[in-house]
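The step that takes the researchers longest sounds almost clerical: writing a folded protein down as plain text. Below is the pair of lines this work produces for a single protein:

——
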Amino acid sequence: MVHRTAAEALQTGLDLVKQARDQDDEVAVDVCLADASRADAALMARFARTATDAGAGLIVLADTVGAQLPDDCGRMFTQVRSAAGADVVLASHPHNDLGLALANTLQALSAGVRVVASSWLGIAERAGMVATEQLLFLLARHPDRFLDGTTPWWTAPDLTRLPGIARMVAAATGVPLSVTNPIVGTGVGTISTGTPFVHPELFQPFDPHDVLGIEPHVLLTQLASARVVTAVAARLGHTLDRDQARAAMSWAKARAFRTGRAVIEDAAFAAYLDGLTRTTLSPS
């Protein structure tokens, strides 16, 4: 990027670290190595050691192209950390172009890195980076897996606040929450097939209500079973018998395929139910 050899560029960076520290010996100087995922680990370790000795507080290894695979990420941090020395503070900054930022961050943590970059909803250039809410959720739920006994907070985070914070971020930035956003998306806590009514633990990794404070919500789709139809009808104020539930299930599937929309709006189903129950209850 600076039209110089690697050695020249690293020396310039080292000079800047020294200059900054000479100006103020209390200022925090962090150095980011761009495209670290395709760089030589030994070269990065030597610079990390030298820069730290010159006063740098943090050496960021950035996968700025977002193409690093998790095993390669873990190996990179392990090699650089081992060669640079335990007192060199490394940081992770992965981009998410291939959807691997979260996995790479967890690999960095497993390799002993204790500073990681993230952003709410994963907002960053191109495909973004690791989402803060996903990373925080995993660290709070599985600290023993990634933190090696280290506790990164004084008070354990209240995960029920994650959905609300995510909604505020979405409103402030104009980046909408989607159905498929993990942890905070509009699809979390929704049920559209019958089996989760019987064995919900088989179809979800955690209880959305207990962990995130999200109330379960039953959606009517082309996957509807009699249980789903009956539950949605009850929410809309109708009690269905077995024949009515079967009729409503057939209607829901037919409507979904006819309209090409999986989710059937409450208003449309309520109008159908009004006709169904009125017809059923009318004297012959």
The mean pLDDT is 90.
